[in-house]
Each structure stands twice: as structure tokens, then as C-alpha cells.
């Protein structure tokens, strides 16, 4: 009887700690840096949902750990730049470089993304969604794992 009670208590404690861990991440808690290093598909940029229909290139970003670089596209031009992780949920980007193609009617996401990169200061990954935000907690870019 005593062993059963101990076993049940251990199971309950493990479930409780796992729940707290997920709540901590959802509230902007400690991130697992390894979760960042992959390709992400843009789903929202500065409040604008990304409609991928008709884009010249996929609206995606890839974070590379080896050289702290990010590259991809916001639908038209190729984008590249550096980033720095300053704390478990703090991030900053260097100015982004982009090719200079004009994609008529397809640059709205790119313009918004380039416009907010200097404001991005936080990151969180929860349930396969990368959220990049400002210091006040406003979501600036939302991406899904590819």
C-alpha cells in the first residue's frame, strides 16, 4: 500500500512539473536554444497574416547556429542578417540585407518584416510556433516550424 502511494505521488509530481514547464514557456520563460535552429514559415508579420498564395519565394527564415546568421525570404527578395541571443529569451538582429528585386504587389510582408527587425527583442518557441516580439510583449513576427 505504501509503495502504491509513493508511486502515485511521484507520477502526480512529474505531471505537475511538466505542466509548470509548459506554462513557463508560454509565459515567455526559459527557451531551449536548440528549438530556434531550423527553418520557420512566416504566418504573421506586424499583425498582418501572411497569405502565401502567389508569392515569388516561400516566406521562410532559417536560423543557423554555427555563424549566428538568419537567411530566407519574406516572399520576394532574399534576406540575410545576423542575430545575437543575449539571454534565454532575448534576441537582437543586425541590419538585414536584401536583394533588390521589385515584385509588384508581393512586397507587403517583406517591407513589414524589414521594418520591424530592429524592434525585435524577445523570442519564444511554444508548440512549434516561434514568436518574435518587442520589449513590451507585442508580437511582431509569428512563424511556424517547417
UniProtKB/TrEMBL annotation:
InterPro entries reported for this sequence: DUF306_Meta_HslJ, HslJ-like_sf, Hsp_HslJ-like
Keyword Signal: yes
Segments forming domain DUF306: 35-143
Taxonomy, superkingdom: Bacteria
The name this protein goes by in its record: META domain-containing protein
Signal sequence region: 1-26
Pfam families reported for this sequence: META
Keywords, comma-separated and alphabetical: Signal
Tagged with keyword Acyltransferase: no
